[in-house]
Amino acid sequence: MITASIRSCFRTSRTLRALFLGAAVSCSGSACAQAPALNAAELLWLGDRIFENECNSRPECLTAWNAGEEFPSLGIGHFIWYRAGQQEPFAETFPELVAFMQARGVQAPAWIVDNGVEQPWPDRDAFLAAATGPELTELRAWLAQHTDLQTAFIISRFDRALDRVLASAPGDEREGITAKFHAVAAAEPPYGLYALIDYVHFKGEGTKDSERYGGQGWGLLQVLQDMPAESATPLQDFVVTARAVLARRVELAPAERNERRWLDGWHARLQTYLPLAQ
Question: pTM of this prediction?
Fold first, then answer.
C-alpha cells in the first residue's frame, strides 16, 4: 500500500513540473535539431503519457518487478536495475538516471549510493517481500518527488538516438532514415515527437547486437528501415511498421520467453501515438 506522504510527493511533483520542466530538459543534438520544440505543458504531457504507458500512472508501480523478468523496473519510465555482475540483453538505465539526477543536485537515497548503485535483491520474491519496507518506501517517495527529472532523463537519452541509429545503419540508408525520422518528428505535434521519444525509451534504438533475435532487432533503427520511403502519413506508417517489427520479434523470440503475452499491450501502447486514439 502506498502511503499518503508518497501520494503527496507525487501530486507536488506534478504541480511543480509545469513550472520548471522546460529548464530541466536539454535537447540539442541531431534528434532534436529539426524537431518542433516542446513547451512546458507538452513536456508535462509527455512524462504523463510515458508513466501511463508503463504502469497506468499508479504511484505504487514506481517500484516494480514484473513476473517473468530478472530485474526490477523503477520510476515513471520503468528504468532497469541489475545486480552486480548481472548480464542481460537489455540496456540498464537506473544507474544512469541516478547519475543524471545527482549531476543536477538531486541526491539519491543514501542506501543506494552506499551500495554503489547496485541492485540489492537476489530475486523477485525478495523484492516483493521488501515492497513495504523502509528502503522501497523511501525510493518510491524519491521517485514520486522527481518525476520532472525522469522525463528530462528520457529526453536526454533520446537526444542522442538519431546519431546512434545512423552510426549503425548502412551508409546508403542514412539519408532515407534521417528523412523518415524528421517526417515522423514533425507529424501532428506533439504526437510525432512523442512517438519517437517513447519508442526509443520503450524498445531502444535497435543498435545493440545483444538486442536481436535471429539476427533481427526491434528498435527505432529497424522501424525506420522498414517504413515506406515516401509517405503522406508518416506517423501512421510509423505505428503500422512498429507493429510489424514487434510481431516479428515475438515470432523469433525463444519459446521459453513467451513474448506473445505482451504483444497486445505493446500494440495498445503504439496506438497512443495517434491523436485519434486519445
Answer: 0.80
